[in-house]
């Protein structure tokens, strides 16, 4: 059996897909993986909306562009978007900034063969965490099956975006009913899969027994 760590460490977000459709069999496997996610008190708040209609996908892609543009611009105005300053190539930096601030970075949702909108009931405190675990399970299953996938919250990050999405998909939008957490795209990668971006070393993120302590105790 393949070590799950191999799947986790080779997965990356894929935003470009071929036009080849994703079969019902594979869709069911992805959904089944989400269904088996850990959930507080076995509440299972997730409600997964499968979208394959091109017209609906295009509308979601347009919403994603607007939502991501609003979200990114707000973050910039609050001084929390400085990660691009380290890119020395000016033309590359400007291209990336344009993608982010116009929201174009998320418009690919309108061109993906398959979207799954992840919603959850609002009757449990654990719902956001449960939905995140559900999404991660689906991402890993998709990668294990050779698909590319990407988790995007841009379309539903702004409140108005979430309301529009609920109306589009006929999700009950009364206060306290359902929360839309994200849209996840799936498809066959268009081109070779590049290795994921590097992660921080364990010694930079792990402490032992107390925050800041990097020496591993001898537990015998």
Distance between the termini: 31 Å
The CATH architecture assignment turns out to be 3-Layer(aba) Sandwich
What is the top-level CATH class?
A: Alpha Beta
Overall form: globular
> What composes the largest sheet?
4 strands, antiparallel
H/E topology pattern? HHEHHEHEHEH
Total number of beta strands:
4
Q: Could you report the average pLDDT, rounded to the nearest whole number?
A: 90
Low-pLDDT segments, ≥5 res? none
Radius of gyration (CA) equals: 19 Å
Helix content: 40-55%
Strand content: 5-15%
For the record, the count of structural domains works out to 1
Strand order of the largest sheet: 1-2-4-3
The helix-and-strand class reads alpha+beta
What does this structure look like?
With 220 residues, this protein is an alpha+beta fold. The chain has one domain: 3-Layer(aba) Sandwich (NADH Oxidase). It is 40% helix and 13% strand. It has a four-stranded antiparallel beta sheet with strand order 1-2-4-3, with helices on both faces. Helix 2 packs antiparallel against helix 5 (127-144). The protein is globular, with a radius of gyration of 19 Å.
